[in-house]
Amino acid sequence: MINQMQKKVLMLALRAGELMMKSGAESYRVEDTIARICRACRIPNVEVFATPTGIFLSLDEGSEESDTHTFIKRIKGSSIDLTRISRINHFSREFTSTDLSVDAGIVILEDIAAGKPYPLPVRLLGAGLVASFFALIFQGSYPDFFCAFLAGASSYLLSVFLDKLETNLFIRGFCCCAAATIVALAMFAAGLGSNLNSVIIGSIMIFLPGVALTNAVRDTLAGDMISGTSKGIEAVIIAVSIASGVGVTIKLWTLAGGVF
Amino acid sequence: MIWAFFFSFCSTIGFSILFHVPKKLLPAAGLVGGLGWLTYTYFIDAGSGSILACFAGSCVVAVVSDLFSRIFKDAATIFIIPGILPLVPGAGMYYTMLAILKGNVDETASIGTETLLMAGSIAVALLVVASVIKLLVMIGRNLSANQRP
Fold first, then answer.
1. Nearest CB partner across the interface for A201, out of B8, B82, B94
2. Domain finish residue from A87, A114, A141
3. Residue of B11, B88, B130 with shortest CB distance to A213
């Protein structure tokens, strides 16, 4: 028999782990947070195994008549949200150092989970900023700045839309970069902009697998080989999808008689 | 040079908005990205190859991120993820793609290898800095533990 208290602690710890993993935290940070929350609730024997696609948690109260309980949480989908990671970090520190009740903890966690990313117009502005300033870094001129802003913002809008449809990584990267390239080529054909390369590079920067790359390294460094490899593969797939999206579009454009 | 810093500062803030960095940390995250790119351009101007420059830039990003994570008492990831992105070789990937389209195998191999190595150098830089910092913290802890009676 599992007692209700233990079950609540489990739910709390797993929810925190799930949220962190979805928001793009490294595996060792997730494992550490879950183990700390459980220990703070006086459950001495905790083993956690976290991978990007699932968390396994098993615990034992350690007394004579207690059983070992194991729980599995499957994780699906992810969206990078660093505010969430930061808030859960603070939460776990607070939870372990003060005598916050488990119920209050669950309320706080749900509040963190309900936190929304920046509103869409602000995110579009962000995507535009990334694309346009990268166009300038790669020797673009001021007309290129505006072209890249438009290409970046419109392709980001498409990626938000594709996220809602829950398409897979490859299709998303491919479609968004193809869209960015089409916008850039169309504006170039209309006589706007002078350096096409800089506009396209700027807009594909938004979709680069930087997060997957850094987390792959940090996971591998921490000894989480499975998480490290799976993040590494994710980075490779995203990179291939971006390259093929741009490549196929340019090829079709030249075949259709467009100037490149 | 100042322009390079300003451009990468702004684009890193753009990334930070996409990744939902907490509002009060936005300028700090931008600064990390700007400093990383500044180091990169400095090394390129000094005549080093792009791989070494990328390595140096990533080292700076990792060190400054760790510093900021201690100052602001927050996870280093929050600064590293947006800060590293300007250094990820998107341009190299694009030119590799163009070379493939042109059917130029030599160019594909040379640019592609350079791109791969740049991505690898970012990874290695993060790894090295993280290990060194871990080591330093451990040594510091041991020293302060020994000093106590």
1. B94
2. A114
3. B88
- Alpha-carbon gap, residue A113 to A107, rounded angstroms: 10
Give yes or no for A130 touching B (CB within 8 A): yes
Is B13 within 8 Å of chain A by CB? yes
Residue A121 burial class via C-beta count within 10 angstroms: exposed 0-12, middle 13-18, buried 19 and up: exposed
- One domain, residues A44 and A142: no
Contacts of residue B95 in chain A, CB cutoff 8 Å?
A: 197
Q: Is residue A201 in some structural domain?
A: yes
The verdict on B22 touching A (C-beta cutoff 8 Å) is yes
Q: How confident is the prediction along chain B (149 residues), in pLDDT tens digits per residue?
A: 788 888 899 999 998 998 888 888 899 999 999 999 999 999 999 988 889 999 999 999 999 999 999 998 888 888 988 899 889 888 888 899 889 888 889 999 999 999 989 988 998 898 899 889 989 999 999 888 887 65
Q: Is the pLDDT of residue A13 over 60?
A: yes
Cβ atoms of residues A75 and A54 within 8 Å: yes
Same-domain status, A110 and A132: no
Same domain, A191 and A108: no
If asked whether residues A137 and A245 sit together in one domain, one would say yes
Give dist(CA B141, CA B41) in Å, integer: 36
Q: Which domain holds residue A84?
A: 4-114
Q: How far is A69 from chain B (nearest CA, A)?
A: 31
- Per-residue pLDDT at B42: 92
Domain membership of residue A260 (yes or no) is no
- Return the closest-CA partner of residue A14 out of A54, A61, A73: A73
In terms of Cα–Cα distance, which of B81, B90, B137 is closest to A245?
A: B90
Domain residue spans of chain B: 2-147
Specify the pTM.
Answer: 0.84
**Whether residues A26 and A58 fall in one domain:** yes
pLDDT band at A2 (very low <50, low <70, confident <90, very high): low
Q: Which residues in chain A have Cβ-Cβ distances shorter than 8 Å to B91?
A: 138, 201
Q: Does residue A241 lie in a domain region?
A: yes
